[in-house]
Specification:
By secondary structure, the chain is mainly alpha-helical. It contains 4 helices and 5 strands, in the order ββααβααββ.
């Protein structure tokens, strides 16, 4: 995960976390998600203040206006999410007998800017569409656990 300098669109530092365990990647992505939100808010505020100092005029809508850096972050995240979703579908297609949620988490979350909430939403959508079944969930359970088995149904 790279951190951008507040006033410019270049990398300030990289954060690297080495692990072989899926729980480590889950924790890293959770921290990445928080850091990205703080970074984008800070960058937006700093760029707004710099524009006010440069022009002497505050913006009509304050610092809430998105700039190119925020747009490029959103574009990058969308690209990464598309790749991770394609990887999820490929995993499901190659495991017609099913695959545990725990075995899915690592490969999907290896993709930068992809979070567990994204994976959960994709599986929820696939369940609603009748494309997968989740085995091992109790009736009132809403959170996927590593031992739950995701079984593809029909064409993905």
């Amino acid at each position: 995960m790279d951190r951008l300098k507040p006033k410019s669109d270049r990398t300030y530092f990289y954060l690297i976390y080495a692990t072989r365990h899926r729980k480590g990647i889950e924790e890293f992505r959770a921290i990445e998600q928080e850091a990205i939100n703080v970074q984008e808010s800070l960058r937006n505020d700093v760029k707004y203040q710099a524009a006010v100092l440069r022009t002497g005029q505050p913006g009509l809508f304050g610092s809430a206006i998105s700039d190119g850096a925020v747009a490029s972050y959103k574009d990058e995240r969308k690209m990464q999410l598309d790749q991770a979703y394609a990887k999820l579908l490929e995993l499901l297609r190659s495991h017609t007998e099913g695959i545990s949620f725990g075995a899915i988490i690592g490969p999907i979350m290896e993709t930068p800017l992809t979070w567990k909430s994204d994976l959960n939403a994709w599986i929820n959508d696939l369940r609603k569409q009748g494309k997968v079944e989740v085995l091992g969930m109790k009736p009132r359970e809403r959170t996927y656990k590593p031992e739950h088995r995701i079984v593809p149904r029909g064409v993905l």
